[in-house]
Amino acid sequence: MTRLIIGAMVRAIGAYPSGWRYPGAHRDPRGDAAVLRRTAEVAEAARLDYLFFGDWLATGHDLEFQDPYLVARVDPLSAVTYLAGLTRRIGLIATANTSYADPYTLARATASADLLSGGRAGLNLVTGAEPRVAGNHGRDFHEASGSRYDRAVEFEHVLRCLWDSFEDEAIVADAAAGVYLDPSRLHRTDFHGAQLSVDGPLNVTRPVQGHLPLVHAGSSPRSKLFAAQAADLALVAVTGLEHAVAVREELRSLAFESGRDDRTLKVIAPVLPIVGDTREHAQSIADELSELVQIAEDWPDGPPAAFPANRSLAQLSTLLGVDVSALSPDRAATSSLVAGFSGAGQELVEIVAERTGRSPSGERPPTLRHLVVAASVTASMVVGSADEIAAEFEAWAEAGAVDGFNVLSAVQPAQFEAFAFGVVPELQRRGVFPTEYEGETLRDHLDLGRPENVHVTSRDARFRPVTGRDGVGRRAFERGPRHP
Ligand SMILES: Cc1cc2nc3c(=O)[nH]c(=O)nc-3n(C[C@H](O)[C@H](O)[C@H](O)COP(=O)(O)O)c2cc1C
């Protein structure tokens, strides 16, 4: 039976550019503590596997228009530690940027989060795509992808060595004998690589889970190789079901080529469901959200300098093959106008019809604004009733496209609650998502075993970079048979 992994990608003011403008939406990040608490309570009541917190280490006015949640947000590890004390069962995954983080500090904070949550912490390692981060961390420039991934490879190795500093039996705590520590079970890291140098040992005992489940999010060839070799969950950007099938197969075969049991790599896709009582209701929500997205033409004298170039009638004209730049954004895209559109333009009209229920020949045709928004907001959306969305999730799982989803919510808290209390029970009714938490730890929820201590097995402790199919990989193992 298919068993989906489902986590919530928490974005406190919503994960759609205009979500914060929707009636009743949470919109002031100064109130995030209450929203995070409520989100965690709802997610745990729905038995979601984890809450996932992304990260972005810089801010600026431009982000207001691209991705308003990136403007101001709580640090992800702080959110995880806060929620560790408020929840009992749900996993809590924080993002860290390996290009800028200090491995000893991160190993210490994450091992602590795992201990404080009873084994429910996870860590998403990214190398970062935002160049402004460099100046916030005393660097002259953001390193190129190759160098960032070289560092990420060393980083992951060092993290595991540091987490394993204490063997599970290292703290003896024999009060009668006066023996606190077995020093033979405390291990130095002694890693001195091209980019990182760490002595160790870590001054936190081994995490409850041994190693926190590692997530990696990216899309380049080096990113895929890193995910295949180092991650338990690969968070991928996919354009549709067929693309997802291909990406999952590629990642799993890379994992196999790296000598790993490829079934232990779970491929997770982000998805943004718009949930309504009926399909028409969901479409009316998606329609209102589209209408609330600002486009360049909303400023008669031109948009702010940082406004995204692709959110304009000028850019849409290129895609449509028809110059609509002098028209009003509220001009209806009627059948006669649409007839002149390019193939890509016609496809866009179909996407808008599916999402909003508006068709060129109908009573309420889409407007040019709807088309600009559909072309420029790239979130992977599915619009419908709870049952329709659950059916779509199930179809993806059965096609071998994903092992699970990271669910984004356009409007907080309403859309998240509609998902948790509407779609999740439908998935449970279909038997593709469990109704109860069984194990205690995040690794249990993800069906991952507890790893051995690298200092005891010593195999992983030897760091040997090797050349993989798409670049420099981590290390070579004996290859076992590939499982079906
Ligand atoms: C689904 C998804 C989520 C991501 N989340 C984050 C994030 O929260 N913070 C971040 O710095 N980068 C994030 N990234 C960016 C990647 O880490 C990556 O650095 C970026 O896409 C550049 O591509 P590359 O690393 O594959 O070269 C995400 C990427 C994907 C596909």
From TrEMBL:
Q: Region annotation Disordered: residue ranges?
A: 457-484
Q: Which residues form the Luciferase-like domain?
A: 32-401
The UniProt GO MF terms for this protein read:
monooxygenase activity; oxidoreductase activity, acting on paired donors, with incorporation or reduction of molecular oxygen
Quote the biased-composition stretches of kind Basic and acidic residues, using this chain's numbering.
471-484
> Keywords on this record?
Flavoprotein, FMN, Monooxygenase, Oxidoreductase
Quote the record's binding site residues for FMN.
Answer: D55, T95, Y149, S219, S220
Could you tell me which InterPro entries the record lists for this protein? Diverse_substr_monoxygenases, Luciferase-like_dom, Luciferase-like_sf, NTA_MOA
The answer, when asked if Oxidoreductase is one of the entry's keywords, is yes
Any Pfam family from its record, for instance, is Bac_luciferase
Superkingdom of origin organism: Bacteria
Q: Which family does the similarity line name?
A: Belongs to the NtaA/SnaA/DszA monooxygenase family.
What NCBIfam families does UniProt report for this protein, alphabetically? FMN_nitrolo
Query: What is the protein's name according to its record?
Result: Nitrilotriacetate monooxygenase component A/pristinamycin IIA synthase subunit A
Native source organism of the sequence? Agromyces bauzanensis
What are the leading ranks of the lineage? Bacteria, Bacillati, Actinomycetota, Actinomycetes, Micrococcales
